[in-house]
Amino acid sequence: MASGLPFIIVRGETKEYGTANRIEGPFEAGELVCLVEDVVTSGGALAEAVAALRDGGLEVRNAMCVVDREEGGTDALARLGVRLRPLYRASELLAVRNTAATPHG
Description:
alpha/beta; 5 strands
C-alpha cells in the first residue's frame, strides 16, 4: 500500500456479506497481474487463485513468494503456465541454519 502500486485481493471463497466478490479491488479484464504469497508448499492455494483471476479475465504468468517449501508448488504452478519466483527456498534456509549450527573449531 505504501508503494502506491495497484493491488487486488483474491478471497479463498466468496463471502455472503460485504461486496460478495471473490476478487476485491479495482481491475480491468486483460490486465496482467503477479501473485504475491508468503509461503508456498504444494501450490494449491495459488492454483485456485490463478483460476479465479483467469475466470475474472486477468492474465497471470508469475507468482512471488517469500519461502518456497519445495514441496511441489513450483511444478504445480508451472503446469498452469505460471512461474514461481521465491525470495528463499527451504533448502537454502536449512543450509544456512545447519552451517550456523556447526561448530567452527
